[in-house]
């Protein structure tokens, strides 16, 4: 099967180690593909290459077999895009902007636009300049999805959205996937990628570190337990026989993978005042999977 979105050995070098280097990936029809990496890793540069806003120094970027730079007008007829920074047409109201964009995209049926406005509880009547970051983001999301495009590129889609709206966004992506859309989204938030994506590429310092299925990532992800002991003596006793445990303030942290059984039974032989668990953060996952330090380009 031919991929819908493809980058082959793409390099855009801004000097000083900045940019993207030898990036290759392929997104199949109907797939939701995550592009995960810390600040400055090269997510936006990659997205802008796909949008045909910039031409790579070397390598090939294509959508449906067409060159993203040379054929951008044709590609964009069936493409929705959410930029990382929405700073356009500030003087227009949200309503005027959406109508203007619908006109540009030749969308005649505005029902989907109204549905999306309702979904995100968006009040588009104010001037974009006066909107909060989250409200602008909603305008951008409505704009990206209102034409029910076959391909959607989203650069940090939930930035500025509150948890309820983040969860509406996740539902929307899953609904669009069922419709058959091919979606690529960049993020530095593990959760939205985990809940929406079939596969994920990790990018760091402009280079792809790995491309994995979400199932494989989930399997390799561990839990971090924070344990507060009933006394300092109990904490010392635990630390003395558990080299993997790290002291963290008045508690200790233990990373546990696989079955919890052994960890829980062992812990029950100590005096425990409090116990909480969390998923590994993106940085910890990076460190765990690739022995990396989780930092971006390192030159920001
Ligand atoms: N036009 C440009 N000129 C020079 N350097 C650039 C340009 N655009 C991007 N860069 C650099 O390329 C690197 C990757 O930037 P990019 O915006 O793609 O990161 P990102 O992964 O999207 O990060 P964030 O999560 O912070 O948005 C950064 O070091 C950035 O400073």
Question: Could you walk me through the main structural features you see in this protein, from its secondary elements to its overall organization?
Answer:
With 300 residues, the chain is of the alpha/beta class. The protein has 2 domains: 214 residues, P-loop containing nucleotide triphosphate hydrolases (Rossmann fold); 58 residues, Alpha-Beta Plaits. It is built from 11 helices and 14 strands. It has a 6-stranded mixed β-sheet, sandwiched between helices. Strands 2-1-4-5 form a 4-stranded antiparallel β-sheet, with helices on one face. A 4-stranded antiparallel β-sheet has the order 12-13-11-14. It is globular, with a radius of gyration of 22 Å. It starts with a strand and ends in a 10-residue tail after the last helix. The C terminus is likely disordered. Bound molecules: adenosine-5'-triphosphate. The site of adenosine-5'-triphosphate has 14 residues, from β2 and α1. Keywords: Antibiotic resistance, ATP-binding, Nucleotide-binding, Transport. InterPro entries: AAA+_ATPase, ABC_transporter-like_ATP-bd, ABC_transporter_ATP-binding, P-loop_NTPase. One of its GO terms (molecular function) is ATP binding.
């Amino acid at each position: 099967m031919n991929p819908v979105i493809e980058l082959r050995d793409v390099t855009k070098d801004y000097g000083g180690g900045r940019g993207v280097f030898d990036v290759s990936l392929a997104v199949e029809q109907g797939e939701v593909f995550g592009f995960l990496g810390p600040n400055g890793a090269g997510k936006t540069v990659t997205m802008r290459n796909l949008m045909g806003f910039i031409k790579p120094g070397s390598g090939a970027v294509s959508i449906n077999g067409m060159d993203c730079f040379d054929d951008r007008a044709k590609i964009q007829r069936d493409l929705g895009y959410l930029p990382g920074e929405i700073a356009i047409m500030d003087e227009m109201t949200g309503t005027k902007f959406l109508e203007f964009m619908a006109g540009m995209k030749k969308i005649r049926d505005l029902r989907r636009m109204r549905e999306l406005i309702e979904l995100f509880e968006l009040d588009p009547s104010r001037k974009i300049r006066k909107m909060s970051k989250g409200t602008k983001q909603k305008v951008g999301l409505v704009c990206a999805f209102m034409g029910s495009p076959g391909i959607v590129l989203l650069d940090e889609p939930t930035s500025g959205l509150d948890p309820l709206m983040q969860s509406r966004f996740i539902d929307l992506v899953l609904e669009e996937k069922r419709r058959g859309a091919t979606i690529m989204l960049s993020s530095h938030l593990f959760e939205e990628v985990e809940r929406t994506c079939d596969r994920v590429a990790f990018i760091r310092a402009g280079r792809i570190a790995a491309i994995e299925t979400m199932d494989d990532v989930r399997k390799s992800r561990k839990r971090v337990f924070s344990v507060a002991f009933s006394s300092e003596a109990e904490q010392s006793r635990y630390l003395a026989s558990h080299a993997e445990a790290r002291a963290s303030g008045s508690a200790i942290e233990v990373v546990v993978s696989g079955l919890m059984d052994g960890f829980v039974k062992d812990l029950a032989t100590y005096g425990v005042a409090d116990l909480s668990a969390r998923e590994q953060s993106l940085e910890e996952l990076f460190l765990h999977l690739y022995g990396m330090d989780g930092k971006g380009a390192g030159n920001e």
